[in-house]
């Protein structure tokens, strides 16, 4: 008797094609979900480590807008994630909620500041990028006097240990700003038409007669107490050290300097925060903080003061430019309760600096 063999069962071509077609989608969903999880972990780690661990360098250099752009892109990819859609959406939303305030966006962009009173104070803060070493001096000084500010907080004055040049620069400042007082420590120059009550150098005050380079390294915030409208107010002219050395990361020197700079920045921020805590006056902190909106160091000021750029009308204020392109903010102005900010503008430096000029109009009293 001959056995009858049953032919092998074949699946319809459409079924095979459908199953094969689902595989790339499943793979894409798994990959996207992995990316979403990795991004969320990075944001959590950044929250925990930024400003606290000197090796957390690369994530601190992430463009701040990435903390919004990446989760938004992941949300846009949710339809491609197949059965992973809900998981990817949850990860993307969590990353967005946890990182949105690191992006440098202005939450008060739609707010209209109150009009400035007649006695409002105009402040200019500017990292001059080595003063006028590579600029025409007449153009440099004209750009400052054209602002007609009451207080100028200028950073990166570098006389290169040349007393004659320092004396000449001071004489030029006094000619350009008749009736103003000039306070100079290291690289920090404060020019004010208000009477100076006292000055304090932070984080350390080198002894009288210290050379310029000692002042440069030791004085990173220059507090000047001014008599304004019958009250004493404190303005802090600040230039925090850069967070890293620009040597090759393949050399040991890079990591040695990175650790040194981290410690110096920590000392500078800690001294500034401590002085703010014991200062009973209305305060204003402005300058080049070498700190992006995403960096944890900024919490020391955000926790105590209010960002004046809330009055800018810009959704994404930027102050640092390279090759004509605006990147993100490194220059900040913060104010204590009691100040009303009527205007905050970032002005073009016309090629004289890679930092834009902060132009602020504010007054004492009222709500911020």
Q: Tell me about the biggest sheet?
A: 6 strands, mixed
Low-confidence segments, ≥5 residues, pLDDT <50? Answer: 16-21
Number of strands: 14
- Helix percentage range: 25-40%
- Structural category: alpha+beta
Instruction: State the end-to-end CA separation.
Output: 101 Å
3D shape: globular
Radius of gyration: 27 Å
Please indicate the count of domains.
2
- Percent of residues in beta strands: 15-25%
Describe the oligomeric state of these chains in a short phrase: single chain
Please give the order of strands in the largest beta sheet: 3-4-2-1-14-13
CATH superfamily of the largest domain: Endonuclease/exonuclease/phosphatase
What order do the helices and strands follow? HHHEHEHEEEHEEHEHEEEEEE
Q: Briefly note the CATH topology name of the largest domain.
A: Deoxyribonuclease I, Chain A
Overall description:
The protein is α+β, with helices and mostly antiparallel strands and 368 residues long. The chain has 2 domains: 13-102, no CATH class; 121-364, Endonuclease/exonuclease/phosphatase (Deoxyribonuclease I, Chain A). The protein has 8 helices and 14 strands. It has helices at 13-49, 66-76, 85-99, 137-145, 163-176, 212-218, 252-278, 299-302, and strands at residues 121-127, 151-155, 181-185, 188-192, 196-203, 219-228, 231-239, 283-288, 306-307, 321-322, 325-326, 331-335, 339-347, 357-364. A hairpin with a 2-residue loop joins strand 10 (321-322) and strand 11 (325-326). Helix 1 packs antiparallel against helix 2 (66-76).
